[in-house]
Amino acid sequence: MPLGSFLRSRWRSSSRGAGLVADGVVGLVARTRVPPNALTVVGLVANLVASASFAAGRFAPAGGALLVGGGLDWLDGAVARAQGRASRLGEFLDSCFDCYSDLALFVGLLVYYAHNHRFLYAVLVCVAMAGSVMIGYARARSDSLVAHGAKQPVDGLDRGFWERPERVGLVALGALTGRMAPVLWLLAIGPNMGVVGTLLRARRRIRLLAKQQASETSPEATLGGL
Q: What confidence tens digit (pLDDT) does each residue in 177-191 have?
């Protein structure tokens, strides 16, 4: 068997195995009837613990707490769907808590670098914090504008990289390996570049919608409808 085919088959097998394990964990937690919102709250607490650990310079425990919080962030939605409790209110609560969790992590890092008089890294944390907030806002706002213009929900759009799992995963990796400096550079540049990309995609889609609406309301289109 060629090496590429062998690797692809091994990847598919490992993915199926991981999916079965994940489904088993979700099913086990769902059977306990624990409220999904409780998992969301505990995930926020785990991120606050990580923030306090960052502020104290205890990066390895912060990375561990981040992994716990990230796992709960994935688990709450899956458990809600398994229990039939998924709701828009739960999604909204989860999004708000995720935003607070992100901000708390960066505040913890900012306190640490400011306390140790590392001005450059404190600035990088601030820039990364701005990018983390703005990329989520820009994507949600652009989807809302496109959906409003098209008068129908927006579904299946390419979200791109730098979503929250990628950002949190990078911070956890930097904390656990003691390589936070390159992570901060990545987070200061990547998400903000993602915001620029979102602005360009939104401009293209909004202009396309404007042209479609203009053609629908033109005199020629009105006479054709008569």
A: 999 999 999 999 999
